[in-house]
Structure formats: C-alpha cells, structure tokens
Write a structure and sequence with these properties.
Chain B: Component of the GINS complex. Chain B: Belongs to the GINS1/PSF1 family. The complex is a heterodimer of chains A (227) and B (219). In chain A, the strands form two sheets. Chain A has a three-stranded antiparallel sheet with strand order 4-1-5. In chain A, strands 2-3 form a two-stranded antiparallel ribbon. Chain A has two domains: 143 residues, Methane Monooxygenase Hydroxylase, Chain G, domain 1 (Up-down Bundle); 53 residues, Ribosomal Protein L9, domain 1, CATH 3.40.5. With 227 residues, chain A is mainly alpha-helical. Chain A contains seven helices and five strands, in the order H-H-H-H-H-H-E-E-E-E-H-E. The two termini of chain A are 23 Å apart. Chain B has 219 residues and is mainly α. In chain B, the strands form two sheets. Chain B has a three-stranded antiparallel sheet, with helices on one face. A two-stranded antiparallel sheet of chain B has the order 2-3. In chain B, a hairpin with a 2-residue loop joins strand 2 and strand 3. The chains are: A mainly alpha (227), B mainly alpha (219). The interface between A and B is large, with 40 and 44 residues.
C-alpha cells in the first residue's frame, strides 16, 4: 500500500453513497458483460439500487399532473436518469441470464457449491434466488422437452444430460482463458499466467490484456476492474 | 451408414442458426435417428448375449471394436439430436424474449396455407393440412417457457426486462404510427394512435408498440 492507495480510500469516503452505488453498478455491468463466466450476484448493491428506482418512480407518479413548468422540468430530468438506471439494471440482468442459459449445468454446480453450508469459503451465492428459480425451472422444462421429443426412446444408459463418459463432457463450460481488458485500481503485485512462463507486475492504473483466469481473483476483490 | 441421418440433422441445425424463421420440424429424420440408436442398442445386447456378462475385451478384440463403434454411434446420434433441439429451442426462447407470439404466428401461417390449399382444391388438404413448423412438443415448450419468462419478469416489474437493450439517449422520441393501435394512456393524457399520424412521446410508453410493429421510430 502506498500513498496513492491511501488517498484513493480517503476520497472514496467523501463521495456520497448514491454516486458510489452508481459507480459500482456500472462496474458490475461492464464486468458482467466482459467476463466469460458468471460473477457473484451483488445482493446488497442491487437491493439499494432497486429501492432507489422504486422511490424515484413513486416520486414521479406523485408529481405528475403538477402543471408547474419548473416541476415539470425537474421531472424530466428525474425520468431521464430513471431510464438510464433501468437500462443499466436491465442490461445487467439480461447479460446474466444469457450466461446462465449458455452454461446452465456448470452454473448450477457452481451455485450449489457457493451455497453449500458445509463449505469452508464464505462466498456469497452466485445467483439471486429468482435467477436460481429460473435456472432450475428452465432446465426442468428443457429436459422434459428433450425427453418427450426423443430422449425417452433412447436406452436408459444414454438418457442423462450431464454425461462425462466417452471422453467428452456434456456440460458446457465457459472459456476461462479468454482474454479480457482490465485496469488495476490498486497495485496487485505479480501476476502469474497459468500454463505459461509469463509473470508480470500490475501497478495501479495499468491497463492489460490478460487471460481471465489469471486476474479473476483480483476482480473479485475489487483490486482490478474490467473495461 | 451409421450416423448419416444424424449428420443431416446437424446440417439442418447449422442452417437454422442463420435463418430468421424456424424451418419445419424434421419429424421423419428424428424418428429415423432414434430408431437407429435403438437398433444399435439391440445389436449391442445381441453381441453381448453369448458372453453372459463375462466379456473380456482383450481376448476378443474384434467384438470389442464392433461394440465400441456401436456405442460411439449411439452417443453421436444423441448429441446430434440434442444439438438440433437445442438450436431450435434457443430460437424459440429468443422469440419469447423478443415479444413475438410464436404460437399465434404459427396459427396464422397454418391458416394461410390452408386457404391456399383450399383454393387449389380440397384434395391437397389431407396431405399438408398440418404443416406446422413446430412439433407438438415444441409448442408445449414455448407455452411453458413463456410462463416461466413472465414469472421471472414479474419479479422485476420496475425494470421491464424485455425492454430495449439500446442505451437510452432521449426521454422523448418521434414516432410514426404504421397501424391503428387505438388509444394509449400516458402521464400526459390519452393519445389516440391513428395510422400515418406522428407523435412526440415518452419512449418508455411506446416501446412495446414499436417492437410489435405498430409504431416506427423516427430518428
């Protein structure tokens, strides 16, 4: 930790919560769209953001009908802001759903691991409860659809959808070695790229193109952001 | 040849990916592939029968090879079938997200075809009276998926999940009415949307109508 880090922390406190939430939401949104695998559901942040959206909508509803031109102008500003917030949340949720649908079984396994009470890590659950519900129901639907279309007529040993025999796993996984653009928010020290000899140092403010798997841990802790 | 029909399915799936609409469901091919897999399974059982559970691959390399080929073909068939159905169901889901009523469109198509067939003479009716491009299972799937989707969407009423994924620039936009859409309620009072008229309205109020093709956005 050097003087820059200390300064960064001090200035972060001075910024009001709302602004930081917006920053955080934008960061989550960019990260979710760029990262090849699903990131942890930001429960608290989403609750705050949704609560604010709800309050703003109520405010707008309360004040429409007010014919005062000044109030009207203020409303337009609020509504524009509201639309932008909604867009961020919508796009964020859709990016997640897309990844969930792309790698359903893989995601389900990860989610189960992250909520396992016996596990030693106290990581937050990967999915929100409604996403989990969507995922399981969607899989049930798909399985039923396959089964009634053709799978039920197959020999019993071939009816599974998560078979790993025969050399090929049926469970699709995201490509964790995909290259991502990232910026260091704090100095994170040396980073090793697995499977290669490459070791490099990432300083605060540096921008790199690296494999997702190499910097994943730092993105989770918030030391590195995806761009 | 083993796996040849499944190959056709894989090709069909590949082609489907680049099409805007869904080509007809290949019922015959599906049946043929499934039958092939079942026959292969029976073959395996017949080959294994004389060994009565004590088959040793190293003593009988020829039989082991035959078994392996059979197994691989069954797996391949299964994967091709899954891929084919997955591509189609993905397409259907996409339509659900896009707010297109797949089933209604199907019915319209069927009616059009029925009308055409009726014009040419009633003899063809029996042949392609039921030329829906969805299998009954797929129709059921679409129905259930729409339910699931609306349930999930219902938890995010403030956000409107199926809304536009373009970043909003302006709160208000110019739109032209392409089809009569009746009266809509907005915060600034009711607007009657008659064909060829033009309005300056809040984007959030008319997004649905734009995606349904009633309104056109003017830039």
């Amino acid at each position: 930790m050097d003087i820059d880090d200390l300064l960064a922390e001090v200035s972060a406190e001075a910024v009001p919560r709302e602004t930081r939430d917006l920053q955080e939401l934008t960061r989550c949104w960019v990260a979710e769209r760029v990262a090849p695998e699903l990131l942890t559901w930001p429960e608290e942040l989403m609750e705050r953001v949704l609560e604010r959206i709800r309050r703003q909508i109520e405010l707008v509803e309360d004040q429409t009908g007010d014919m005062d031109p000044k109030a009207n102008f203020k409303l337009i500003v609020i509504q524009t802001e509201l639309e932008r917030f909604k867009f961020l949340v919508r796009s964020f949720l859709r990016a997640r759903i897309k990844k969930i649908d792309l790698f359903p079984l893989h995601t389900l396994a990860l989610h189960t691991a992250s909520t396992d009470p016996g596990s030693t890590t106290t990581a937050a659950p990967l999915l929100s409860s409604s996403e989990y519900q969507y995922l399981t129901q969607h899989q049930a639907l798909l399985f039923q659809h396959y089964a009634s279309s053709f799978l039920s007529q197959f020999p019993a040993s071939l009816q599974r959808l998560d078979d790993t025999t025969g050399g090929i796993s049926m469970v699709d996984r995201p490509d964790e070695d995909k290259a991502v653009f990232c910026r260091a928010l704090r100095g994170v020290g040396e980073i090793r790229v697995e499977g290669t000899e490459r070791v490099f140092e990432m300083k605060r403010g540096d921008v790199w193109v690296v494999r997702w798997s190499a910097i994943r841990e730092w993105v989770r802790t918030g030391d590195v952001e995806l761009i | 040849m083993y796996g040849e029909i499944a190959n056709k399915l894989a090709h069909s799936a590949k082609r489907t990916q680049s099409l805007a609409h869904l080509p007809p469901y290949q019922t015959d091919l599906i049946r043929a592939v499934t039958r092939e897999a079942r026959d292969l399974d029976k073959d395996v059982a017949t080959i294994l029968e004389p060994f009565a559970g004590s088959f040793n691959p190293s003593t009988e390399p020829a039989t082991a090879c035959a078994l392996l080929v059979n197994h691989l073909c069954m797996r391949r068939n299964k994967r091709c079938l899954l891929a084919y159905h997955r591509v189609r169901s993905d397409k259907l889901e996409e339509m659900c997200w896009g707010g297109i009523d797949v089933l209604e469109r199907q019915q319209q198509q069927q009616q059009q075809q029925a009308n055409k067939a009726g014009g040419e003479g009633a003899t063809t009716m029996g042949v392609d009276g039921n030329s829906s491009s969805l299998s009954p299972e797929e129709e059921e799937y679409v129905r259930q998926y729409s339910d699931l989707l609306s349930a999930y969407k219902g938890q995010w009423t403030d956000i409107d999940l199926t809304g536009s994924l373009e970043p909003p620039k302006d709160l208000f936009i110019d739109v032209r009415v392409l089809k009569d859409a009746g009266e809509i309620q907005t915060e600034y009072g009711a607007i009657t949307l008659t064909k060829n008229s033009q309005f300056y309205v809040r984007q959030g109020d008319v997004e649905r109508l734009i995606s349904q093709g009633y309104l056109q956005r003017l830039s």
